């Protein structure tokens, strides 16, 4: 398992946080997600043997909230 904290564009309200978390939980290998929409940050715990960081970033972009650098 690995835990990462991501800065996510547009993650600034409870509804956005729910959309992001729901989208990520559809991916096999996601263990836990936790949003902080005040800081636009998302903490994700995932199984690295089932999922890559690139797949997580792709899913976030698909739900309209890409990772910012």
TrEMBL record:
Residue ranges of coiled coil: none
One of the record's GO molecular function terms: metal ion binding
Origin superkingdom: Bacteria
Gene3D superfamilies for this protein: 3.30.70.100
Record domain HMA: where: 2-68
InterPro entries membership: HMA_dom, HMA_dom_sf
Protein name as catalogued: HMA domain-containing protein
């Amino acid at each position: 398992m690995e835990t990462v904290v991501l800065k996510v564009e547009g993650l600034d309200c409870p509804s956005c946080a729910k959309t992001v978390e729901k989208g990520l939980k559809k991916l096999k290998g996601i263990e836990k997600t936790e949003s902080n929409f005040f800081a636009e940050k998302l903490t994700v715990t995932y199984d690295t043997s089932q999922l890559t960081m690139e797949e997580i970033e792709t899913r976030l972009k698909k739900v309209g909230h890409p990772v910012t650098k």
